[in-house]
């Protein structure tokens, strides 16, 4: 069994940290920016979000909120796909080395 310092010194661990950072920061930035854009629009331009589509009962605000939810689902899908391709193999390699299987 390896110690935490030995695991942190492994090249696979360093690659894991870099891979996670590479995907997490942009995706978090996208979601946070979209959320704050919606909140600021609600705060400063509430009438613009109250306008309805083609005279219907659904307003731009409802559509923007629904769009934010869909964006979060899409970001989650991108992260899961990336994690399955890049992060999970690194985690498996680190786990195997830490248990002494390699």
TrEMBL record:
The chain crosses the membrane at residues 23-45, 57-82. Keywords: Membrane, Transmembrane, Transmembrane helix. One of its GO terms (cellular component) is plasma membrane. It holds the Pfam family DUF485. InterPro entries: DUF485 (IPR007436), Inner_membrane_assoc (IPR052959). Coiled coil: none annotated. This is DUF485 domain-containing protein.
């Amino acid at each position: 069994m390896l110690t935490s310092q030995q695991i942190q010194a492994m090249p696979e661990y360093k690659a894991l940290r870099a891979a996670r950072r590479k995907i997490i920061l942009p995706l978090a930035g996208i979601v946070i920016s979209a959320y704050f854009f919606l909140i600021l629009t609600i705060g400063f331009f509430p009438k613009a979000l109250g306008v309805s589509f083609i005279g219907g009962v659904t307003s731009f605000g409802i559509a923007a909120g629904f769009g934010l939810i869909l964006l979060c689902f899409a970001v989650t899908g991108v992260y899961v796909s990336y994690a399955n391709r890049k992060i999970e193999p690194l985690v498996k390699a680190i786990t195997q080395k830490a248990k002494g299987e390699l």
